[in-house]
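Input sequence (875 aa), recorded before submission:
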Amino acid sequence: MATKYVYLFSEGNASMRNLLGGKGANLAEMIGLGMPVPFGFTVTTEACTRYYEDGERISPEIEAEIYEYIGKLEAHTGKKFGDLENPLLVSVRSGARASMPGMMDTILNLGLNDEVVESFAKKTNNPRFAYDSYRRFIQMYSDVVMEVGKKYFETLIDELKERKGVTLDTELTADDLKYLAEQFKAEYKAKIGEDFPSDPKQQLMGAIRAVFRSWNNDRAIYYRRMNDIPASWGTAVNVQMMVFGNTGDTSGTGVAFTRNPATGEKALFGEFLMNAQGEDVVAGVRTPQKIEQLKAVMPEAYDQFVEICGKLEAHYRDMQDMEFTIEEGKLYMLQTRSGKRTAAAALKIACDLVDEGMRSIEEAVLMVDPKQLDALLHPTFDAAAIKSAKPIGQGLAASPGAACGRVVFTAEDATQWAVERGEKVVLVRLETSPEDIEGMFHSQGILTVRGGMTSHAAVVARGMGACCVSGCGDIKIDEENKRFELGGQVFNEGDWISIDGSTGYIYGEAVNTVEAAISGDFERLMRWADSIRTLKVRTNADNPRDAAVAVKFGAEGIGLCRTEHMFFEEDRIPAVREMIVADNVEARKKALEKLLPMQRSDFEGIYMAMEERPVTIRFLDPPLHEFLPHKDEEIAALAKDMGLTFEQLKATVNGLHEFNPMMGHRGCRLTVTYPEIAQMQTRAVIEAAINVRQRTGLNIVPEIMIPLVGEVKELAYVKEFVDATARQVMEEMGVEIEYLVGTMIEIPRAALTADCVAKQAEFFSFGTNDLTQMTFGFSRDDAGKFLSAYYEKGIYESDPFARLDQTGVGKLVEMAADLGRKTRPNIKLGICGEHGGDPSSIDFCYKVGLDYVSCSPYRVPIARLAAAHAVLKNR
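Predicted structure, C-alpha cell format:
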C-alpha cells in the first residue's frame, strides 16, 4: 500500500503527533472536539524525511497528493485557488512533533496575486485590508521562500512612514499599502532577477519546500541540539484556510495561555491586537492589549474564548498556549499546544494539577523538564543591594529572574563576549528574532524596546530560563552605533546594567545577586522525584563550600573530589613546585610533608560538610607542567623565589614539556613514577577520616580513586602503596576504619579489560570527559573549532562532551559495567564526568544499571529529577 503523505484535519487526532506534528495533531483534535478551526490539511513529517532523502526535492507523487488535497480543501470551503470571485487564501506553517516556537517558518495570505488582490479588495469592500494582506504576503514569501532578508522590506516601510509623517503601520492608507506592494515586488525582482510568482499552486509548493528547508536552518539545528530533538524527526507542514484579523475594528488576533506562563497562577493570561495579523503579536511589532480587555471590546467572542480555554485545559490536562483570530466578530482557533513556561511556573502548575485531581504524582513529575530547573538555581538580586538601587526604567516582566552584565547589541556580540571573553552580558535589542537564539542563550538576560509578554524574546527566554524584560518603549536605541538612552543616561557597549525579569525594572548599574534556594513547590516536586528514582545523585566538589551547596541541593555524596584543585591555591603551590623540581625522593618527600597538613585539613572540612555521605577522592591527575610557569620572565621570577638559577628551573620546565600532555605523564602514571605522592595523599585521606570520627563520632568511609588506569597492573602497583600507608596510619592512630580503593574508567582499554581491573578495584567511576576524548580521538579543548561544521553537515547532532555518545562511548560504559559485575558482583558503579548532569545521559546510566551519577552542585536537582524521569520512562 502506498504511503499516505497528506491528511485533512478531519482525518487526524492528537495520538498522531509523530506523523502530523504537534500543531497538525492538535488542530485535528480541536476539530474533533467541535471547536471553530479554519479547515485545512497536513503534509506529514514522513514527507519531510522523504524530501531530504530525495535530495531536497518534493517527489512527483507527493506533489500530486498535495494538489489532490488542495481540491478537497476547495470543495470544503467553497473557495478556489486563484479564483477572482471567491479566492482561497491559505497560511503555511511548520509543526514538528516537539514544540519549537519561532524556530521554523510561516507564510500567511498565500494565494494572492495582482488580479486576486484587486477582486479581493472589491469583494470585501476593504481595499486597505486587501493590500495590507498582499504586502505582508510578498514580504513573507520573499524572506522565507526566496531568502531575501526582511530588513530590505522593513526599510521601505520605515521610509514610507517617515515620508507620510506617521508612526504606526495601521496609519498607512490603502494607497500607501498598494504602493508598498509594488515596491516590494520591485525589490523582489531586483534581488531574485525574476517577477514575483503569480500562480498560487507555484506559491504553495515553494512555501512547503521552504518549511521543509527551515527544519535545517541554523536556529532550528541549534534549538534541536539544546533540546535533544533528533534531526530524523522532520517537520510537518500545515496548510490552512486563512481567517483575517486585519479586516478592520471588528477583527483581531491574539495569543493566550490558560495559566500564567511566568508564575503558574491559575488565571487566563494573554494579549491581543485589533486589526492585526498573528505575527504582529508574537513579533512584537506593536505592543498589544491584555486579554481581559477583550471582554469590553468584543464580549461574545471573549466569553466563547474563555469557554474553549477551559475545555482545552481539561481535555489536555495541562496549561495550553493558544493562538486565535477574530474575523468580523467570529472567533477561530488557530493553534493549541502545551505552553512553554518558566521553571517556577512549571513546578507550580505540576503541583496544582495534582491538587486539582487532574494529574497523578508520576505524571506531574514527568511534566517538568529537568533542564528547566537550572533557571531556579541561579542568582536573584540581593535584597539589600536592590533596596538601594534605583530603577531608571521599566518594561514588561517577561521572564523572571535577575540578570547583571555588560551591554551588547547583537546576538553575535553576545556569543563572542560570553564565550571568548568570559564576560556576563545583557543583550539589548529593538526586538529579537529567531536568528538571535544563540546570542540569547549566552546572555544573562534580554532587554527589548518592542514586544509584549508573548513576543519572541519573552517566549524563548522563558523556555531557556533566561531573564527577560520586554517592551520598554522609553528606550531610545541606536543599534548601529551600539548605544541606547534611558532615564536620562547613555549606555554604550560594555557598560553595566541589571534587569529584573520579575518586576520589569531596569537598573543602570551592576546589582549584587544571591544564590537560589529550594523550597515550596520545588521542594515538593523534588520529594516526589526522590521517592521514584533509584539512581543515587552525588556531586563533584573540591572544597567544603561546594560540598555544602550540593548537600543543600540534595546531593547524597561526592562522586569526584579533584585533589589537584587544592594544590593550585596560593599557600600551597610553592610546596607543589618544590616537589616538582626535587631531584631525589627525600627532597620530594620533604615538600610533600608541607602539603600533608593542608590536604588533611581540606578532607576534614569536606567530610564534615558531607557528614556520613560517601566521598570519592581522586588522587593527583594532571601533568606536572600545569603547576609551573612557561614564560621566561615568570620562570625567572619563580626561580629567584625558590633559590634556583633560571637555567635550573627552565631545564625542569623543558623536561616536563609533552607534545600531547592529556595522554602523557599524568594520573596513575605519576604515582607509578613517584609513589610518595600517593603515600602522602593516602595519609591525608585516612588521618582526616579518623580525626573527624574521633571529634564527631561520624563514621567516615573514604573512597580512594586512582585515575587514568589502563592496565590492571598499574592499579595493583599503586594500590599496594595505598593499602600499606592506610594500615600504617591506622596502627599509628590506634583506630581501624573502612575504606575503598577504586578507579576511574576513562581509557578505552580499561573498559575493554574491566573484568581484570575489577579484581583490584572495589568501584568504578566512569570519567566520561576523558573517555569521550580518547574514544573519539579528539581534544575536548580543541573540538569546538570544528564541531560546528559537523552539526551543520548533520554528522553529529549534539556535542559529545555535553551529551553522552550512547552508541560508541556508551557501549564501552555498558561493557565495562557488565564485565566488572561478572568479576565483582557487588562492585559500585558511577559516572563523574559532565554527563552526570545531562538528563539524556542519566537515562542511559539508569538503563545500564549504574548505582549513581555525579555532577556539579548546581546540577544536582536536575539529576535528581532526571533520575526519576528515567524510572518512569523505562517502565
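Checked by second reader. The two ends are 34 Å apart (CA to CA).
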